[in-house]
Each structure stands twice: as C-alpha cells, then as structure tokens.
Amino acid sequence: QLHSDQDKGDGSLKYILSGDGAGTLFIIDEKTGDIHATRRIDREEKAFYTLRAQAINRRTLRPVEPESEFVIKIHDINDNEPTFPEKIYTASVPEMSVVGTSVVQVTATDADDPSYGNSARIIYSILQGQPYFSVEPETGIIRTALPNMNRENREHYQVVIQAKDMGGQMGGLSGTTTVNITLTDVNDNPPRFPQSTIHLRIPESSPVGTAIGSVKATDADTGKNAEVEYRIIDGDGTDMFDIVTQEDTQEGIITVRKPLDYETRRLYTLKVEAENTHVDPRFYYLGPFKDTTIVKISVEDVDEPPIFSRSSYLFEVHEDIELGTIIGTVMARDPDSASSPIRFSLDRHTDLDRIFNIHSGNGSIYTSKSLDREISQWHNLSVIAAEINNPKDTTRVPVYVRILDVNDNAPQFAVFYDTFVCENARAGQLIQTISAVDKDDPLGGQKFFFSLAAVNPNFTVQDNEDNTARILTRRNGFSRHEISTYLLPVVISDNDYPIQSSTGTLTIRVCACDSRGNMQSCSAEALLLPAGLSTGALVAILLCIIILLVIVVLFAALKRQRKKEPLILSKEDIRDNIVSYNDEGGGEEDTQAFDIGTLRNPAAMEDKKLRRDIIPETLFVPRRTPSAPDNTDVRDFINQRLKEHDMDPSAPPYDSLATYAYEGNDSIAESLSSLESGTTEGDQNYDYLREWGPRFNKLAEMYGGGESDKDTS
C-alpha cells in the first residue's frame, strides 16, 4: 500500500503507478493507494519488478509529492520439479571392471531459486539397475556395484535414475531419466578348438597351393579380442603343408606346400595352434590364450600322368646331317605303382612342316626332312607322353632344337650394282666398290676374297681385305660407238670349310661424263639427237601430239555430223506437224499440238486456235488476227506470230519451242518438198540438184542416194 502524508482522506488526491507490469500485472487503487496483482506471478519468469508511484491533486493534476521508485521482489516457492536434459542416456563400461568404476554422470536442473530454501537442492537415487550399478546422491555419477561383470553372460543393462528436490525430503518434486549401459568386450576368453582331432583328405594330383580344408577355433570375445592366428607347430608334414589365417572368417586354411605322392607317403599328421593376437595383461591369470588340435591329412591315390626326366630338353644338331639321324631322346616314366608303359608323340602344331619325328616307344627324335639353318635356326617342339592304358592322361615337355651352321652357301654381291665408266677415264681409276654377303654364320666371322674369273684387259679387281673390293680401269679412254657395255665376271669366295665361291657379273656401261666425272649420257643414239632430249623423250612427245590431234579431229567430225543431220531422212518420213518441247512429248504421231496448215498457205490462216495438248491455266477470248495477203513476206509473218505468242497468255509456255517455216510462193524451181509428193511412187531423177551448187549437195545426197539404195535393194 502507498500512502502520502498529504492525503487527508477526503479523496482529493489520486495515486498513479508506472513501470514494469503497471496496468497489466499490477494495478493501484487511485483513492487508497493499494497495489494488487492481477494474476499468478511466476518467479522463474521474472524475479524483480521496478515500479514508480506518485500522488497528484485530482483537480489540478499536479503532483503533491515527488515521484517515488520501489522494487517488488518475488519470493520463490517449490513449484518446479528437477529435469534432465536427456530423456535417455547411453553409456558403456568395460566388462570385468572393478567395483566403483565410473560409468557416466547425469545432471538434473531445477528452475526454483537455489538461494531460497531447499527448493533447488537435488538428491539422486537409483530406481532400477541394482545391484549392478549405484549412483552418488550429490553428483549423479553412476558406478559399477558388482565385480567381474561378464559381457558373455549379459551385455546390456537399463538403469533408471531419480532426481528429487527439497534435499530428497518428503514433499519434494522429482524427475527421472533412463541410462542404457553396455558392457564392452575385453579379451578375457582364450580361443578353443571344438575338436581335438580333425581329418582331411586330398588327392595326390593336387597342385601346390591347393586348399585342403580349414580349421577354426571359437572365441567368445568379439572384434580384435577374438582375432586368432594359426600356425603349424609340430608334425611330420610341416614341410609339406602351410596354414594361412583368413581374416574375415577367422579360419585357418591348410594348403599344399610341396607336390604330394601317394606312392611315397599316404598320411601326414600336423599339430595346429590357434592364439589370440591381442592379449590383455590384466587377464593372464585366466590361462594361456591359445589352443591346439591335431590335423590328420590322408593322401588319395590318383592315376597320374607320366613324368619326364627333365622339365625341358635342348638338342643341337648340324644342318647337314642325313635324314633319319637321331638328334636326341626324351625320357618319361609312370609315377603310379602300376608303372604302365609310355607312348611318345610329337605335337604337330609345333612341327607343321613335319621336319622331325619321334619313336613312340623309346622317345628318340630323328629328322624326317633335311635341315637348313638359313631358313630356321631354332625349332621349338612339344613332345607328348601318354600311358598306353590311359591315353587321355598326358604330359607335355618342350624340346628346343638348335640348328648349327655348316658352310653350305656361297657368298654373293650384297646389292645390285649399276656401274658405269666414263669415256675419258684413265687407267687405274676407281669406278665401283663392291661388297658381299653370305647366309652362313661361321664362328670366326665372315671373310670374303674377290678376284676376276679371267684376266681382263679393260678392268681389274683389287681386294681391300675388309670384305670389300674396288673395280679399277686398266687402260685410258673408252668409246660408246665401239662397245657400249662390258661384262666383268667377279669370283667371290669365303674362308670357311669347305670353301664356297660364286661368280657375280658386273655390267659396266660406257657413258659420256663431264670434266668432274658426272654421268651425262650412256646410250649411243643420244649422239644423233639434240642435247637435252633423248630418243625416248622425243617418241613420247610425238605420241602425245598425235593423240591430241586424233581427239580434235574426232570431236570436229562429231560436231559437224550433228549440224548436218537432215530433218527428213527419206521420202516416207513425212510429218504433218513439227513440235519441239524441252519435255518428252508424244513423238512424231502427235498431231494434236498445232495445225501447221496455216504455214502451208498464208491465205488459209483462220482464227487462232488454242493448244489442244495442254489446258491453259486461264482462258482468254482468243483474238482474231487479220489474214496476211498472198504476197506476205515470210519473215514478217513469223515475227508477227512471235509477237502475238509473246503477248498471248494462252499461247505455248515460254519454255516451249514452236518452229514455223514457209517455203514461199512462186519459186523458180517450184516446190522441193516431198510433203506434196508423199503419195507419188513414180521414179524421179534428182541428179539436177548437183548442178545447183554446193548448197544443194545435201539434198542431192539424200534423194539421189535414196534412189540408188532402193535400186540396189
């Protein structure tokens, strides 16, 4: 309640309130100054409110005292229970932990005022999870309560923790949370084999590296604590077998280390040990973390293929041996106790030329064709050995045959030599250096000797003793007119045994050379021709000129023949109409296009008629053209018709060619056309056409020739 010393109780003063929550949370009685709360106040929302109050004259509204400020402090009550930030906690602790091992700490909060009473004082207790775990009342730390908790017995635990305020006294509020605790694994269990003896079987034909079987020791632990390493520690097969640990399955895979033989040994005994790779020293007292088992391996008998005495064979033989000579022998045996006889054969895919053969009984390889080192220096054969009782079971062995060289090839020129000698050559001049090659390959290397087959007065050979020789002239001057080519036989021999030699012939041409010895011409005919052109070049030029002339003549004749092609080939070839289009028409029988009767006589011109072979796009009324007089000039007539067709849309299209011709009136020679005499079969003599001049020669040939052909037939 607020009260002013100036208040006489007559209602002349008025109290007003301002500040935090004034008018909403707090209201004041204007007459008495009593302050009231309008609703329930929560300290957790706001603990302090600052207000200002003043007394004013109700009539003048002037303050009678200065404004005063005061603070309303909210006293706390226990109206909030403790809460945990997480509804469910997850924690873990190693198994076999000692009592009191800390697992996890849980903390609850209380919104009440911790400085006022015990409303915010929290005490922790365990509602579920005893007797395995406990919780410290003041801190909320959860600890193990039992010793040697084993994960293999129980792995997961659920603990319920309660937080209660008011120091845990009666009437306090409380909240709970759940803690899921998992025991983590430690290596407290050794591996154990489920069997003390394991039996395995394997065929004796199994190759090295073959997996025979597996062994596995069980371990109750998990993860790296259950990792096991296997090893063979004893037995009579330690050198014959290996064991490998497979990480994903934790099994020990036993494999073959050396080839097995049933006839040599049929049973092996191994002692296999399995040991943990990660051992915890804290649990050594639980015993050794390893175990052993006995593995017995039985070798099963298999019909094995033959075995060769060597993995490969190498035979060397000279290329000049006789046919049927044995070059070597391969040996094989049956490893089985039955010891079946062996049959040998050659794989013909490795001897397509059938140069070798083999004795099927004793494995002797001999030649069936002659050998040639120069064709093939090595022969790689494959010999097959098979049991006679079981031919399908075979073994192969490679046989390498090296052919040794024999001096059976004579040396020859290394290349073809194009040799020439200048006409102005002097005696002793070098004209060619020659060398030789030999297909043979002697151990001491190649050595060749060069000489002439006979004494030559013109040339000589000088051996350089380095497998080359020089060809020199023996006299001064040579003439192409006398001898244009010389043949010089050269003998080439080697130094191996037996000595081989051959004769190579050098063709030496006599040529004209300049002062420096450069060849200019080597043929005798070149002296008769102009300098710079040989006979062959001139012949080629002449042939080209002749071919060009023939082409020009043929082209001109063809063009002339086309120009002189007659319009009418015979008297019987009469057309009533001549129509020319750039598209394909009806042929010579087409008489529906135009009427040529108008052209026969200008006086017979009638009204213009439309084309009958096409339908015009737009129909116009045809215009009537005046008839031409009898003496109308043909040129004027054609020009007039051409102009009319250009202006008339119903006329033939621009890409059609209409040809008009008129022979005229009152010709001195009268009509020369055969159109009017097509029905006359009487004989006529056209020889007078030849007398009219060259312009009528074609007509004379046409009509005169036609009669002669007719008479001939």
Helix vs. strand class = mainly beta
CATH architecture of the domain at 412-521: Sandwich
Average pLDDT number: 82
- The named CATH superfamily of the domain at 412-521: Cadherins
How many strand segments?
Answer: 39
GO molecular function, one term: calcium ion binding
Organism: Ardeotis kori
Protein name: CAD10 protein
Pfam family, one: Cadherin
Gist?
This protein is mostly beta strands and 713 residues long.
Could you describe the 3D structure shown?
The chain has 713 residues and is mainly beta. Among the domains are: 13-73, Cadherins (Immunoglobulin-like, Sandwich); 88-184, Cadherins (Immunoglobulin-like, Sandwich); 197-300, Cadherins (Immunoglobulin-like, Sandwich), CATH 2.60.40; 307-404, Sandwich (Immunoglobulin-like); 412-521, Cadherins (Immunoglobulin-like, Sandwich), CATH 2.60.40. The strands form 12 sheets. Strands 30, 32, 35, 36 and 37 form a 5-stranded mixed beta sheet that branches.
Compile the SSE list and pairings.
Blueprint: E1 13-19, E2 26-28, E3 35-37, E4 48-57, E5 68-73, E6 88-94, E7 102-105, E8 123-128, E9 133-135, E10 141-144, E11 156-164, E12 174-184, E13 197-203, E14 211-215, E15 228-235, E16 241-246, E17 251-256, E18 267-276, E19 290-300, E20 307-308, E21 313-318, E22 326-329, E23 332-333, E24 342-346, E25 356-358, E26 364-367, E27 378-387, E28 394-404, E29 412-413, E30 419-422, E31 430-437, E32 448-452, E33 459-463, E34 468-473, E35 485-494, E36 501-513, E37 519-521, H1 535-563, E38 580-581, H2 597-600, H3 634-647, E39 656-657, H4 697-712
Parallel strand pairs: 6-12, 13-19, 21-28, 30-36
Antiparallel strand pairs: 1-4, 2-3, 4-5, 7-10, 8-11, 9-10, 11-12, 14-17, 15-18, 16-17, 18-19, 20-23, 22-26, 24-27, 25-26, 27-28, 29-31, 31-34, 32-35, 33-34, 35-36, 36-37, 38-39
